[in-house]
Write a structure and sequence with these properties.
By secondary structure, the protein is mostly helical. It has a single domain, classed as Fumarate Reductase Cytochrome B subunit, CATH 1.20.950. Helices cover about 70% and strands about 5% of the residues. The protein is built from 4 helices and 2 strands. A two-stranded antiparallel ribbon has the order 1-2. α2 packs across α3 and α3 packs antiparallel against α4. The longest helix is centred in the C-terminal third of the chain and has 34 residues. Bound molecules: protoporphyrin IX containing FE (HEM) (2 copies). One protoporphyrin IX containing FE binds next to α1, α3 and α4.
Length: about 170
């Protein structure tokens, strides 16, 4: 049977974002909750700011492909409600991801260190910075919950025998 797939750029972007978001979420919360030595916290902060900043321009590329390469048709077994749920979940993931990215940049109270390249912090006003700090805190929490739900939904579909994972994997000959 021929299964429809997301386009190659959408698949590549999905897995690149997934890897960085999973790493930034797990290491970011580990740094806050487990309180490792300051040198480890600084290393995590440096790696995470650098990696997630790369996602900012790529997010625009992702939105471009979202419009240019529409998703493949929904699997035939899905009811109208399931399709609506999946579409809403994906939209919520993208909106929350965008919010986490721009709030992260705008909350910076030091230059943005992009693998050694120093970019100036966009805002100077401490009150505005603290608003975006709070927005970053809540958007990262919401993103972590949505991602957990997203992974659970994919696993649930696999378990029911209606694999959706292959729609995001390379096409097999
Ligand atoms: C989707 C992308 C991102 C994710 C998943 C993410 C995740 C996290 C998490 C889990 C925390 C700790 C949670 C907390 O303290 O409430 C955190 C803190 C932080 N994030 Fe992000 N973040 C993202 C993007 C960014 C960006 C683009 C920047 C700046 C360029 C940034 C800068 C920071 C800073 C400065 C902190 C405070 C702690 C530290 O210095 O490491 N984040 N992030
Ligand atoms: C960790 C961060 C993740 C984010 C932010 C994320 C986000 C998204 C979004 C927005 C879509 C809709 C298609 C698109 O626009 O790319 C999607 C689809 C998909 N994701 Fe993820 N994802 C993540 C992780 C994962 C993981 C770990 C898996 C594997 C268990 C996964 C499996 C899938 C699959 C199979 C689809 C296609 C669903 C369909 O059939 O339409 N995702 N994801």
């Amino acid at each position: 049977m021929n299964h429809p797939h997301y386009s190659r750029p959408r698949r590549l972007l999905h897995w690149l974002f997934a890897a960085v978001v999973l790493w930034a979420t797990i290491s970011g919360y580990a740094s806050v909750l487990l309180q490792p030595p300051p040198s480890v916290q600084q290393a995590i902060a440096f790696i995470n700011v650098s990696l997630t900043s790369v996602l900012v321009p790529l997010f625009v590329v992702r939105l471009f492909y979202l419009v240019r390469h529409p998703a493949p048709p929904a699997p035939a077994h899905q009811s109208a409600l399931e399709r609506r749920l999946a579409q809403t979940g994906h939209a919520a993931l993208l909106i929350t991801l965008g919010t986490a990215l721009f709030s992260g940049v705008l909350m910076m109270s030091r230059p943005i260190d992009l693998f050694g390249l120093q970019l100036p912090q966009p805002l100077q006003d401490p009150a505005a910075i603290s608003v975006f700090e709070e927005l970053h805190h809540y958007s990262c929490l919401a993103l972590a919950l949505l991602v957990a739900g997203h992974i659970a939904a994919v696993l649930f579909h696999q378990w029911r025998g209606h694999g959706v994972l292959r729609r995001m994997l390379p096409k097999r000959p």
